[in-house]
Amino acid sequence: MSAGTLSAFERSLRRLDVESIRTTPEELDDALASVTLDPVVGAPLPFADCSLPDWVPTDPTPAELDSAKTGVTAAELAIADYGSVVIRATPDATEQVSLFCDRHVAVVRAEDVVPGMPEAFERFAEWTENGDSAIVATGPSATADMGALVKGAHGPKEVYVVVLE
Amino acid sequence: MSSTREEKAARIRHFLATEGDAVAEGTRGFNAGRYDSVEKLDEYEELKERARAIKEDAIERLPELVDQLRESVEANGGTLYVADDADEANRYIREIAEEQGAETLVKSKSMTTEELEVNDELRAAGVDVVETDLGEWVLQLADEAPSHIVAPAIHKSREGIAELFEATFELDEPLETAEELTMFAREKLGERIAEADVGMTGANFIAADSGTLLLVTSEGNARKSVVVPETHVAVAGVEKIVPSVRDFQPFVELIGRSGTGQDITSYVSLLTPPVDSPTVDFDAPDVPMTDRETERDGGSVPSRASDREFHLVLVDNGRMAMREDEQLKETLYCIRCSACANSCGNFQSVGGHVFGGETYSGGIATGWEAGIEGLDVAAEFNDLCTGCSRCVNACPVKIDVPWINTVVRDRLNRGEDGKLDFLVEGLTPDAEPGGLDIGKRFFGNFSTIAKLGSATAPVSNWLAGTRPARRLLAETVGVDPRRDLPSFRRETFRTWFERRGGSEVPPARARREAVVYPDLYTNHVHVERGKAAVKTLEALDVHVVVPDVPSSGRAPLSQGMVSTAERHAHDVYAALAEHIDADRDLVVVEPSDLAMFRREYEKFLAPKSFERLDMHSYEVMEYVYGLLHAGAEPTLLSGADDPGSGDVAAGVAYHSHCQQRTLGLESYTIAVLEDLGYDVVTSETECCGMAGSFGYKSEYYELSMDVGEPIREQFEAADAADRTVVASGTSCLEQLDALLSRPTQHPVELVAPR
Question: In terms of CA atoms, which chain B residue is nearest residue A43?
Answer without folding.
Answer: B290
